[in-house]
Amino acid sequence: MSKKIELNETEKALEKFLKDVIKQARKNLEAKGINASGRLSSRFRQSYNVGENSIEGTITGEDYAKFIDLGVAGVKGGKSLGGFKYKSKGGKTGLKGMPPPKAFDKWNIRRGRADRDEQGRFLTRKQLNFKTAVGVFNYGIKPTRFFSSAFEDEFKNLPQELVEAYGLDVETFMQFILKE
After folding, report:
1. Are residues 131 and 148 in the same domain?
2. Together in a domain, 85 and 135
3. 77 in a domain, yes or no?
4. Is the pTM of this model over 0.90?
5. Sign of dihedral through CA atoms 114, 119, 125, 126?
6. How far apart are CA 147 and CA 71, in angstroms?
7. Exposed, middle or buried: residue 4 (CB in 10 Å: 0-12, 13-18, 19+)?
8. In 3-state terms, the chain is what percent helix, strand and coil (to 5)?
9. Could you read off the pLDDT of 166-176 as tens digits, one per residue?
10. Over the range 5-43, which residues count as b (16 or more CB within 10 Å of their CB) and which as e?
11. Is 86 a domain residue?
12. CA 65, CA 68: separation in Å to the nearest integer?
């Protein structure tokens, strides 16, 4: 007589944990002023799977979220918590391998950036985008830990909640068994 334990309370606790991590990560993004377009925070998705012998939770988001969270070391400096690093692939000026300047166009506009040259004239958008790309390539992206810190903070609360939820599920299962 093999009966499968239904882990309703455990699933609820795991779902709450995933939602709380996403909620805290979004708060961190807003507090640090990182989420210029809103796309980064709006793309978080959660899923979980509770098997017979395992519990698995997954949070997915934009591919570049890991670079914003853990940082990217530049060619001339900067640090990365995840081991990510820009590398020069040569070229005439050593800039082959840098991010495409066009990728910074909308970001610069949203930030309201308007740099000037040595004569005090405003840079064109194309020049500003190139300057931004070179800066990121040389000095990298600073780690923000917007997601890592949210996960760590919520994980501190998880074990006790999960233990209690799992205990409630086992108790319900035992009551079900004893009724038969």
Report:
1. no
2. yes
3. yes
4. no
5. negative
6. 12
7. exposed
8. 55, 10, 35
9. 665 556 655 55
10. bebebbbebbebbbebbbebbbebbeeeeebeeeebbee
11. yes
12. 5
